[in-house]
Amino acid sequence: MSKPKVAIVRYEKPLESVRKAVDLSDGLAGLSPGSKVFIKPNVVMWSRKAPFPKWGVITTSRVVEDVVVLLKERGIDRITIGEGPVLFDPKATDTAAHAFEGLGYNVLGRRFGVTCVNVHERPFKKVDVGGGIVLKFNTDILESDFVVNIPVMKTHAQTVVSLGIKNLKGTLHINSRKKCHSADPEKDLNYMVALLPNPLPESFTLIDGIFTTERGPAFDGKIRRSNLLVASSDMLCADMAAAMLLGYEPSRVPHLVHAARNQGRSADMSEMEVVGEKIEDLAAPHQYSFAYNDTETLPVGMEKMGIKGLSYPKYDLTMCTYCSVYTGAILTSIGMAWQGKPWDDVEILTGKIMKPTPGKKTILLGKCLYQANKDHPRIKEMIAVKGCPPAPGDVVNALHQVGVEINPSILENIESAPGFFMGRYKNKPEFDESLFRIE
Ligand code: SF4
After folding, report:
1. How much is the pTM?
2. Domains of the chain, first to last
3. E-assigned strands of 306-411?
4. What atom in ligand 1 is closest to the CA of residue 368?
5. Residue 220 neighbours by CB distance under 10 Å
6. Can you list the positions of beta strands (E) in 13-113?
7. Measuring from atom 5 of ligand 1, which residue has the nearest CA?
8. Nearest protein CA to atom 4 of ligand 1, as residue
9. Taking the CB of residue 14, how many other CB atoms lie within 10 A of it?
10. What is the pLDDT of residues 116-129, one digit of tens each?
11. Are the CB atoms for 227 and 210 separated by under 8 Å?
């Protein structure tokens, strides 16, 4: 039996490069005219407040438009673009509409009849994805005939890489996304993510590596202009090849190992035929997480600042996105509050399974950790921030209560925070904003 093809193409020209990736990989060979197609870009987050770095975080609109043109050439008229961005404010369900307008998807609507759907506002269906796990999926993707999955080529602080398989998480109901960050060590985040492709129809994965991201998945990572496209009708193979391009053997990426095992395959390059460019010519190591100190109780940068009397243990796989959105903002606020005087043995715990250290003042961040530890006998002083996700004002109050006088402004204006990173890209023409517009 022939092996699935994975095309690796340098991004050089609009339309032409995507066409080459599609043709070399035979990625749309399984698509029949008249099919109902669901396009899943990666619009992981969006800020309505200010311009922010989209490079390496969000799928370029350039590639999305090129895919739509190629679908139209194949006689596809029913095209839906669907996404459910992570919301800074859980009530801000208009965020997706703002993103679709900002990314030019509404132009695709007017020009090609493409429909955009905000996953948060659409129906969900419970699906048994295997292993006894039931997740609520968006019905538009489930009821499509064919999925075109267009993730960004990026690393991820928890899952090492975030590519085609991981991109599907954005089609889940928020409660199911939280469920994926399970506290069960046998069925952890990697196990859950690997199950996500199971209920989908036939698909084509086109990984947008025009920009690639170190220490992803968000705007605080380090972005490179890499000009790569990876394409395959086999999602696992596309992900394995892209992982290699980011510097990771598939065997080092737990969710790819699970996915391969689920399909009775091996997590290595023997599974595919690579066409186009050679991986060894283009692979470049990308770190996937920020460095922590030896005890993993503070980021190295904060330890170097000399911070004493406070520990913020490194997140684990159980902390879901809605809590992790605050991590960077809290750490930055704490760093800014440091005046050189040791704090009073404070620890800040996150996720679902961390345990308090005897003798410390323990802030439990989020409902999960409060419930797990509220009766813990070793807690000296418990400060619980019970929300799910925690309310920014409550986080500020908790830190003030233990004497960490952070300025509330960063947390209270969390949706503006991505905009602070724009300065990094000033006068760097390779970070071209026009790739995120459709004229
Ligand atoms: S409290 Fe945090 S970790 Fe727990 S489910 Fe809510 S967002 Fe996720």
Report:
1. 0.96
2. 5-288 (3.40.50.11440), 300-407 (3.40.50)
3. 310-311, 346-349, 361-365, 381-385
4. 4
5. 21
6. 36-41, 78-83
7. 178
8. 368
9. 14
10. 999 999 999 999 99
11. yes
